[in-house]
Amino acid sequence: MSTLDQSFVTNGSWKPDLFKGKVVFVTGGAGTICRVQTEALVLLGANAVIIGRNVEKTEKAAAEIQQLRAGAKVIGIGGVDVRSVESIAKAVEVTVKELGRIDFVIAGAAGNFISDFNHLSSNAFKSVVSIDLLGSYNTAKATFQELRKTKGAYLFVSATLHYYGIPFQLHVGAAKAGVDALSNALAVELGPLGIRSNAIAPGLIEGTEGFARLAPPSEDGGNGLRDKIPLQKFGTSRDIAEATVYLFSPAASYVTGTIEVVDGGAWHIGSYMQDLYPSVVIAANEDPSAKI
Ligand code: COA
């Protein structure tokens, strides 16, 4: 089911036809955050292609997003793994054939799990870096010639984990630090072609897999964690969608090479795992069943 509806247009901050005639290509578009980003762009006039590994989930999400606006075209292409640049290139071909162009790219596909260094195998590290970082590169690579024609924009979905070295997420933190560097370098290299590149760094966003993983249910209903966020609330997927609309809109036409942090100010406070540090790390390293 879609998160956004027509009220995003009628009572929202943006003009209804902001993205009329534009096409967005989204990896991970059936996942929580990237799906809502897509919904917002479609509601504001864009057509979209979302790609993902799971065929049924991706096609179902596309059909539901298409319902949001009369006349919208939203195509779901499943069976695409961002670790394969060829499989993304095929999805790009379909996009251009069916929708004519690509103006915006959201590189959002990501893989994650909680693991301390001691139990994180080399292959596990490689797996996450391959999805998050190499996958972002592959997405940029496969869509570049289309963005070049439209003088379009990239948006990479990053994170804030690597700002404070949160324990048990070093694989993701390393990958997302690379994503930030990739986006910044693309902004520099492709700026002269009229292509912009930015990243968005969500904080704790309610209703996501990442939230369930990093902020599991607690006795106080999460209040302790919430209190540590300067804005005193968790984020929503809509918060990420709003920032996405801004970054693709003409209002951000001079904005490139930035990392838009949407976390309620949380990272300035430091890791929310401070209370557990260093006991969790010591315990993880005491376990003799380390992996290679
Ligand atoms: N803890 C430690 N290692 C793990 C792990 C976990 N929870 N889950 C997977 N791994 C390791 C595997 O053991 C394997 O390493 P090994 O060969 O040394 O044993 C390696 O990671 C690759 O595992 P594999 O099952 O082949 O993963 P994959 O490459 O097909 O997919 C993920 C990797 C991250 C996508 C997969 O773990 C996953 O589906 N995660 C949950 C969904 C998700 O991440 N969604 C995105 C939300 S941000």
TrEMBL record:
GO terms for molecular function: 2,4-dienoyl-CoA reductase (NADPH) activity. It comes from the Eukaryota. Its EC number is 1.3.1.124. InterPro entries: DECR2-like, NAD(P)-bd_dom_sf, SDR_fam. Keywords: NADP, Oxidoreductase. Pfam families: adh_short_C2. The keyword Transcription regulation does not apply. Gene3D superfamilies: NAD(P)-binding Rossmann-like Domain. It is an enzyme of class 1 (oxidoreductase). It catalyses: a (2E,4E)-dienoyl-CoA + NADPH + H(+) = a 4,5-saturated-(3E)-enoyl-CoA + NADP(+); a (2E,4Z)-dienoyl-CoA + NADPH + H(+) = a 4,5-saturated-(3E)-enoyl-CoA + NADP(+). GO terms for biological process: fatty acid catabolic process. One of its GO terms (cellular component) is peroxisome. This is 2,4-dienoyl-CoA reductase [(3E)-enoyl-CoA-producing]. It comes from Scheffersomyces stipitis (strain ATCC 58785 / CBS 6054 / NBRC 10063 / NRRL Y-11545).
